[in-house]
């Protein structure tokens, strides 16, 4: 229904129209973040690498919602950012779509969703501990009557939100560190395997060359032995001949 039609209807006061119009604008303002372009920008904004570690943040839902509602939200959001729906921005839309799909994959699994919920529980516990420490400090200073920022429910919720982001970031850093350590270990293992393969190959080639040259060595030895025998025989014959030939007669000179 257009605003002009609503204004022209009998019995519709200016005040009721203004109320209606304000409500419509408020709804439009609230839902404007659901437009494809804005959702893509939200998912790819600066710092999104850490924001998107939290699947609940990606899908813009509270952690206590049911899986069925998470699935509905995923379908709605995935349609909004789908590359086929954003022809003028397909590359960024694909990146946003992958982020949404990854968030759903985490939350549809009972085990990984439970781990995410445990992050929220730990964040709340740490925030409550921090608040208790603040109050303890105020009491020690004789200022226990003074309020703290987290007394405001909005600021309390924001403090938990900040702690949640920090814990997800810490988890990601630990994961990256473990992945790096695992990659280095696999690299060292592979280098050791390559060295062993090269050693075995070299041993095999040496053994093969040794076997192939065996006959040549045998023949060389036989030739050496045969040559040595002939040499000894020749020397012996020469020696015997020298003994059998009488010395030449030399006439006596007067």
From TrEMBL:
UniProt-annotated stretches for the region Disordered: 176-254
Cellular component GO terms held in the UniProt record: nucleus
This protein's name: DnaJ homolog subfamily C member 8 isoform X1
Gene name linked to the record: LOC117573645
Basic and acidic residues bias: start-end ranges: 176-215
CDD domains in UniProt: DnaJ
Comp. bias regions, Basic residues: 230-239
Domain spans labelled J: 54-124
Transmembrane stretches, start-end: none
Organism lineage: Eukaryota, Metazoa, Ecdysozoa, Arthropoda, Hexapoda
């Amino acid at each position: 229904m257009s605003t002009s039609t609503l204004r022209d209807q009998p019995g519709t006061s200016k005040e009721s129209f203004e109320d209606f119009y304000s409500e419509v604008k408020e709804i439009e303002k609230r839902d404007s973040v659901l437009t494809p372009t804005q959702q893509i920008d939200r998912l790819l904004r600066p710092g999104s690498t850490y924001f998107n570690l939290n699947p609940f943040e990606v899908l813009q839902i509270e952690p206590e919602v049911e899986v069925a509602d998470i699935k509905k939200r995923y379908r709605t959001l995935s349609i909004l950012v789908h590359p086929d729906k954003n022809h003028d921005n397909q590359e960024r839309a694909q990146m946003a779509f992958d982020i949404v799909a990854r968030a759903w994959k985490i939350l549809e699994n009972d085990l990984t969703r439970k781990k995410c919920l445990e992050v929220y529980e730990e964040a709340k516990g740490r925030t409550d501990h921090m608040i208790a420490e603040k109050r303890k400090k105020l009491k020690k200073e004789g200022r226990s009557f003074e309020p703290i920022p987290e007394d405001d429910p909005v600021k309390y919720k924001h403090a938990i939100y900040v702690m949640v982001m920090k814990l997800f970031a810490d988890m990601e850093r630990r994961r990256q560190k473990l992945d790096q350590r695992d990659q280095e270990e696999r690299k060292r293992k592979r280098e050791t395997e390559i060295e062993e393969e090269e050693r075995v190959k070299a041993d095999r080639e040496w053994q093969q060359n040794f076997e192939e040259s065996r006959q040549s060595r045998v023949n060389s030895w036989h030739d050496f032995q045969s040559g040595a025998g002939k040499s000894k025989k020749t020397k012996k014959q020469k020696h015997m001949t020298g003994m059998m030939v009488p010395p030449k007669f030399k006439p006596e000179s007067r």
